[in-house]
Specification:
Number of domains: 2
Order of helices and strands: EHEHEHEHEHEHHHE
Strand order of the largest sheet: 3-2-1-4-5-6-7
CATH superfamily of the largest domain: NAD(P)-binding Rossmann-like Domain
CATH class of the largest domain: Alpha Beta
Number of strands: 7
Largest sheet: 7 strands, parallel
Helix content: 40-55%
Bound molecules: NADP nicotinamide-adenine-dinucleotide phosphate
């Protein structure tokens, strides 16, 4: 299916690896020109070469920490008028909330809530003026299925989710949509680290732990990053113009609720 976004411009935050990269690849495959970002130029260059090799959309690397003002300035200097913005950043560490102080909370809120809000603030009015815009925020299944040790993530991402619910309807009449994409367990470096930490905590070998862990999930496997990227690209399509203010789980059925 042609998603009708060839030639559009996308800033994809935190996209040298993992979920962000998968979104950038899927968008570039649709002929979208992508600005990919991360904090390591070598990793960015490797990913840029992979995207270039697809022979579809153009790729530009931006060495930028998206959680800083300077990083976001760099992204908008490189791509001042994006049609698509995919918000993403590294996730906060797990832990016991009794050990987190104000600076831990402020970091999580900055990285996983405020940074996305600032990216939206910088891009949305231009999208409205041009009559096309797609904003996708990568959050987490933890928004709907919180885990105690991921308190920083649960809190900051729920804050972003509430903010989005408040602003997402306004620009709908201008063909500008804002949606949140909630990964469950998608096979990336971060997911492998999380699974390893769980295996260590359970005093099990990673392979043995993973068999049971994923075996207990409805899909019996982790998600593939390409599956996640394809969902993001669809949300950015012309066809998805009537989908906004949604929280879409990509979790293989992990979240057990009706809504
Ligand atoms: N994978 C999952 O199953 C899953 C599930 C729930 C939630 N999530 C959340 O989804 C997000 C992405 O996860 P992932 O699995 O793709 O992680 P990942 O495999 O660790 O990849 C993270 C990517 O983001 C970049 N990055 C990290 N912090 C950045 C920053 N401050 N500025 C710019 N780039 C940054 C990294 O590059 P550099 O390190 O070189 O900058 C890398 O390209 C995280 O917030 C994670 O908590 C993931």
């Amino acid at each position: 299916m042609d998603l009708n976004i060839a030639g559009r411009k996308a800033i994809v935050c935190a996209s040298s690896r993992g979920l962000g990269k998968a979104c950038a690849v899927a968008l570039a495959n649709e002929g979208v020109d992508v600005w990919i970002s991360g904090r390591n130029q070598t990793t960015l260059d490797i990913t840029a070469q992979e995207i270039q090799a697809l022979g579809k959309g153009k790729v530009t690397t931006v060495l930028a920490d998206v959680t800083t003002e300077e990083g976001r300035n760099a992204l908008f200097e490189a791509c001042p008028t994006p049609d698509i913005v995919v918000n993403n950043a590294g996730g906060p560490p797990p832990g016991d909330f009794r050990e987190w102080d104000q600076s831990d909370w402020f970091s999580a809120i900055n990285d996983n809530m405020y940074s996305a809000i600032d990216m939206i603030k910088r891009s949305i009015d231009g999208m409205v003026d041009r009559g096309f815009g797609r904003i996708v925020n990568i959050t987490s299944v933890a928004v709907k299925l919180p885990q105690a040790e991921l308190g920083l993530s649960n809190g900051a991402r729920a804050g972003l989710t509430g903010f989005i619910a408040g602003i997402a309807r306004g620009p709908a009449q201008h063909n500008v949509t804002i949606n949140n994409l909630l990964p469950g367990f998608i096979d990336t470096d971060r997911m492998r680290n999380v699974v390893k930490a769980k295996a260590d905590a359970a005093n099990k070998e990673v392979e043995q732990f993973s068999d049971t862990f994923f075996g207990n999930m409805p899909a019996k496997r982790p998600g593939d990053a390409d599956e996640f990227g394809a969902t993001c690209a669809f949300l950015c399509s012309q066809q998805a113009a009537y989908i906004t203010a949604q929280n879409l789980l990509v979790d293989g059925g992990l979240y057990p609720g009706t809504f």
